[in-house]
Specification:
56% helix; alpha+beta; 9 helices; Arc Repressor Mutant, subunit A; 222 residues; 5-stranded antiparallel beta sheet; 2 domains; Beta-Lactamase
């Protein structure tokens, strides 16, 4: 199962468990690149895509600080214009970003959205935190399997640079709902910030969201 498929299924199940008025979306941030991993509904997907495109929003801040971020009133959120406008457009009134560390330079966030007013309950926040860490464990295992999968490594090594970069650009466009120009800019910026070639960043994107692991990494308790 590919990681993107795992995250999509997990987001759907998380929303069911956490409440009928909750939509869930999962974001992955690897070495400076933010990717929407999976969403329970189209509305929450569009909110996370807006955040990923703008590189500003609660889940990005939560992953950076590794602390839960409450947004009790979306319309009052300051500094995240694109995310706030999209989230308001979808009718959500509150949000919650729950991060978990996967490995150095890699984190996930379980993002919850609700159209019901009022603060998130302590019990729900604690459960969401446990879910986020379970997601992180699955992502960690997936990436470990990808690293040791000789066949997959051979595939990427034999792929011309231009092909790998174009596939990563396509993955960014589909995942984050962005234009080709924006996807290229994100890839180039990440390469500059990490002081590596675009090919290296492209491979990390492809491994993170496209490559299927050897076996099913979904926790059996789900």
């Amino acid at each position: 199962m590919s990681l993107s498929t795992y995250l999509e299924e997990y987001a759907v199940r998380a929303a069911v468990v956490l409440g009928e008025d909750v939509e869930a979306s999962i974001t992955v941030r690897e070495h400076g690149v933010t990717l929407r991993g999976g969403s329970s509904e189209a509305g929450s997907a569009r909110c996370d895509q807006a955040e990923a495109r703008a590189e500003q929003g609660p889940c990005i801040d939560a992953m950076a600080s590794q602390s839960v971020l409450h947004v009790p009133q979306v319309t009052a959120a300051d500094g995240w214009d694109d995310w706030r406008e999209q989230t308001t457009r979808e009718g959500f009134v509150k949000a919650l970003a729950v991060p978990a560390l996967v490995a150095p330079g890699v984190a996930v966030a379980l993002n919850l959205y609700s159209r019901a007013p009022g603060r998130w309950s302590t019990e729900l926040v604690e459960l969401a935190d446990a879910y986020a860490h379970l997601v992180a464990a699955g992502v960690r295992l997936h990436l470990q399997l990808a690293e040791v999968d000789d066949a997959a490594a051979g595939l990427y090594r034999s792929m011309p640079d231009a092909v790998a970069i174009e596939q990563a650009v396509g993955a960014l466009m589909e995942t984050n709902g962005c234009t080709q120009d924006k996807a290229r800019a994100v890839l180039a910026s990440a390469a500059r910030n990490r002081d590596v070639g675009e090919r290296v960043v492209a491979e990390s994107i492809l491994r993170a969201l496209v490559l299927g692991g050897r076996g099913d990494i979904v926790d059996q308790e789900r």
